[in-house]
Amino acid sequence: MTIAVSAAFDSGNIDVLRIAGPGAIELAIRKDAHSEFYQWFHFRLTGARGQACAIRITNCGGSAYPGGWTDYRAVVSDDRQSWTRAPTSYEDGVLTIRVTPRGDSLWIAYFAPYSMERHHDLIARIGQREGVTTDVLGTSIEGQPIDRVRLGTGPRIVWLYGRQHPGESMAEWWMEGALEALTSGDDLSVALRKACSFHIVPNMNPDGSCRGHLRTNAVGTNLNREWAAPSAERSPEVLCTLAAMDATGVDFAMDVHGDEALPHNFIAGFEGIPSITDRQMGLLTEYKETLARLSPDFQTRIGYPASAPGKANLTMSTNQLAERFGSLATTLEMPFKDVAENPDAQAGWSPERSKVLARDCLRALLEVVERLR
């Protein structure tokens, strides 16, 4: 069989430069449309059953976060259900992935993909559960729905949203875990649904997700730099979501992301917003410390540097929501690599672990929920 590489599918991203046999497969990652960002890849290798392949992605040195390739390992799957890590090295701007496919097809990606088909299955499945309603806040640039899931009857208003940066697919695995936990009927879900009204947007950027973008929507907009003044032309995804938040208010918010370089789970807060209060900072510290106690995969030592007083970037959602509503707003970052504190040699950071962390985040929320107002 002839060895081939393709990426013409949901979230696919790769260009084929040269294939001269299993040891000479040369590829390049495409940039996000109308943007200089690139790092996400997802492609299918066919015709290489039982052959030791060396796949070289040649343009990684110019990617959005070249420091993220150090100690990184690509994920692979022959059934698109279970993803494991492949031997991967990085040198002189070239990422080399070594695989020996067991079958005729092997899928290779930057992180386990979360397809738009799975997204629609999630909305359909969760939407049928008791006490759950779903609606559409608006549409993306290309007309895809911005889905919201609503549940709970409590007085505290909680917003959970993810995949502003579409290549950070662990965010929607986290969302799946959160929705499953909140609809399980166990003590945690009952208590949270009594205390809170949840508004959950599993995918803020469906166009970028389909296109295989790393960070932007269909017109090259980084949605997490649009929250001060979103527009119908550049960022309708943020425009409709922020309008819905204005209608409900926000007591607690979590914006779910992935970080290319840091091998840690951590929370970025809103330090530096103009109207910051001691109450907000106390709640942020308490929430992070609670989550670190509950989850072996979460830590508080390493993260992003805090903004100087009054210098927070209000175009970013966490800062904007904390300033706008006086809320406890958070950005959760998960790794593309693995968690240094609790590594898994086979899977690294994974969909399954993302889902477990979601439940732990909800457990931490329950411990602080009474102090949100």
From TrEMBL:
> Per its record, what are the GO molecular function terms?
metallocarboxypeptidase activity; zinc ion binding
| Parts of the chain that traverse the membrane | none
What keywords sit in the KW lines? Carboxypeptidase, Hydrolase, Protease
Q: Active site at which residues?
A: 333 (proton donor/acceptor)
A biological process (GO) annotation for this entry?
proteolysis
Domain Peptidase M14, residue spans: 112-369
CDD domains recorded for this chain? Answer: M14_PaCCP-like
Q: Indicate whether Protease appears among the record's keywords.
A: yes
Report what the protein is called: Carboxypeptidase family protein
What does UniProt list as this organism's lineage? Bacteria, Pseudomonadati, Pseudomonadota, Alphaproteobacteria, Sphingomonadales
